[in-house]
Structures are given as C-alpha cells and as structure tokens.
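Fig. S4 source data, part A: sequence.
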Amino acid sequence: MSVPQIKLSKITKTFPGVRALSEVDLALYPGQVTALIGENGAGKSTLVKTMTGIYQPDGGEIFVAGKAVNLQSPHAAFQLGITAIHQETVLFDELTVAENIFLGHSPKTRFNLIDWVEMNSRARALLDDIGASHIATDVRLKDVSIANKHLVAVARALSIEADVVIMDEPTAALSYKEIEDLFTLVEKLKSDGKAILFISHKFDEIYRLADRYTVFRDGEMVGEGLLADTPQNEIVEMMVGRSVEQIFPSRTLDIGEPILTVQNFSHPTEFADISFDLHKGEILGFYGLVGAGRSEVMQALFGMTHGTSGVITSQGKTISPKSPAEAIQSGIVYLPEERGKQGVILDLPIFQNISLPSLSTTSRNGFLRMAKEFELARTYATRLDLRAASLDQHAGTLSGGNQQKVVIAKWLAIQPNIIILDEPTKGIDIGSKAAVHAFMGELVEQGLSVIMVSSEIPEVLGMSDRVVVMREGRMASVFNNDDTLTAETLIRCAAGIEEQAA
C-alpha cells in the first residue's frame, strides 16, 4: 500500500454539549475512492470541515503526503490541494459561471488584473471536460438550474490542481445521464492518481465507485476495509448499530375519495396540461428526470408561483392559491427540495423552526408560550428521530438530513390534509430513510394524503400507490403501482424511449 495522500489520526472535535468526533482515523490513497458512510449526525460533515480547514480539531494530527500539516483555514487546505464538492452548492448567484469557478484564483494579466478572456476560456474547457458543454460561462449563476449548479461546483473543484477531492452527496440533484457523466469523471480522477473521498447514502453508487470504506457512528469510526470483501448488510449494521430489514413499510391500503383534483393546470414556461386526482389516504408519486417540471408544478400548487390556467379543487372547494399562506389555509403544505434556502431558518433554533407555522397554537393573547413551543417541537422531533444536542441548537449547525427532519416536523405540526414532499429523503442516511418512510406510512393510514416527488426509483416503487411520470413539463403517463410496474418502465417513460418489441 502506498503512502496515503491524506491521513487523519485520532481526530477529536467537541462543540458545546456534544462530541462530534472522538479519536477518528481516516486515510485516502492516490488512485482510490474511499466511501465515508454513516447516519446523519455521525460526524461526516464535521470531518469534511476539518479536512478543508473550516474547523480546527481539538486533538489528533493530519498528514498530507506523509508530512504533518496544520490546516488553519480553507485557504491553507486549498494550497495543499484539498478541495470539496458539497451536497449544498456553496456558490454565488450574482456572479457568472466563470467567476464562480475561478473565485479566489482567477488568472491574471501581466498588469495583475483579471484576465477575463483566459478565465472564460479555461472555464469553458473545464465544463467541456465534465460533459457540461451546455452551460454558458458568462451567464449569472442564478439563471442556472440546480443540477447545473452542481456541475459548476464540480468544475470549480477541478479548477485547482487538487490531489484530494471530497465529494459530499454529489449526485443528489443530478439526472440519470448527469450521474453517469459524473461516474465517468470519477473514474478519470482515479486514473489521474487523485485520492477521492466519496460521501453518499446510495449503496448502489458506493459499491459501483468505491474501493475502500470507512464507517462512522455517533462520532466514532466503527469500521473500515475493502468493499469487495464486505457485504452491504454488514456495513448497514455498522452504520446504524442494528439490522435494517425493511426500508419500505407494509401498509394496509384504505384509499378514499379524491381530496385534491387538478385539471389542465398550466404555467406559461414551466408546465402544461397537468391533470390528476389525489385520494384521501394515498401516496401519489411523481417521477421524472431533472428538468421535467415536477417541482415547478408543486410550487405552483403551494402558491409560490402562479399558474395561468386550470382548475384546482380541494375537498370539494375550488381554490387558487396566490401565496403559500393561502395554500396552508386550504390544508396544503410543501416540503421543498432546497431545504437550506426554502425550508429552514438557519439562524433560529430547532424548536422555533418547528413551531413557526403553529404560532396560533403556541401563543395566548399575543404572547408566545415557550413551554408550548418546546412541547410541540419535542413531540415531532422525537417521532422523526431528530439527532441534536438540544432543541435550542441552531438549525444551521445540523447535518443536512436532520435539517430535512426539522422541515418535515414543522409542517406535520400544523396537521394539514395534504403534504407535498419534494425529494423527502434527499441526503438522508438509510436508517433515517426507514424512519421517514415508516412515518409517511403512519400519516396516510391516519387519513393524510401525500404527494411525493422523488428521483429515487426504489423510493417511488416502494412508497407510491400510483405514479405520475413527467417529461418536459407535461404528464407522460400515470401508473398504478402494482407488481407489473418496474424501474425500466419508469425510466423509459421519463426519457421518452419506446418499449422494445418482444
């Protein structure tokens, strides 16, 4: 075995009230992919921030190419060739694509001014290399889709001569084709001798790409080794400290009358002629490739944007939500895909995030009752197995998966009739996914109706009673989820591929 490109030895990191890392080890080798696996709150994000100089460890040592180093800042890590592609893209909407890629290390002219021509040229070459030639270098990032923002983040990470590349849930917002392109890129990085840390909750990706694995649980390293020698069930048990036999719960179906009817719903630029029924006690899945218009339909139903035509009927009453407040009054709530921007208020504590939509029930005569806020928050945080030091902890300090649980909790607390879940388990580990799926099953058995937008086919097939497939802003088909519905059928329908003749 060669010398690790980066090695962390006995790293410890403590925050008020919680030990995030306890004497953990990690080694990344040139030309190999190491998967970092663990539940949300296991310490993965803290480790990445330690490797990239955002956090300084309380104890332990870090070695780069066999030499002890002190990563006092992100710039220090950057100078040593350590770069990260984060799950939530850390980019700037008002800058252009090229400016985002070369921010902090833009090429200069001989007069020490930014060389705009060279910068755009090099940005163009980087994007072309990762299969993103469709992205213009001179457009502002705010005009780029979520999936393309991730590709810009990949290009930014590769704009330096990095020896260590950290990929934190890099496929979370990518389409099937873009994921395949990313896998090709990872193989190229391996062949170039890069040491890669790959963080994902998708075991198919881990077993396809990674050579080695390291498992964290509750801030400790509980296992490492070669993936080829380790079955998946063994790794899952290391992660969660228990056996996860069934991610998708069995449900007793008791589907009632339509509670929401959408007819010929259209938007001038995003979608057209959307028609479907949602029944009481039903989980209606929406599947499609990135850019199919699924989230846009849901945002219009929630009043975030406005459709131009069509009829929406909720519980027998015609509605036309002009704002989220109006949708909430009609019993409809929406859990967004971009939880960091639209789902939680990062600077508020957990209990206030959860109680925020329920102030009418946690206040009296215009005064908030903190005890009621804590009681409400504690109820739903416990039901969703939210991992935090306390309910006073700011939402911004939580892992991505636990932030998602906060968003789910705040909407469930107002007891809606219809909940729209847009990628509800995006960035959530396998153990927490099982908890969210089980809770979804409980909700529909209690009569709640769920619309679930998901890009994960196992989730769509495992949870949905019926599946709507969208393509290019229109409904391509609606399937009953019986034993005959397959992943291949959904992919073909979403991609517009004709069924092959027998």
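Fig. S4 source data, part B ends here. The chain has three domains: 6-240, 246-331+416-502, 338-415.
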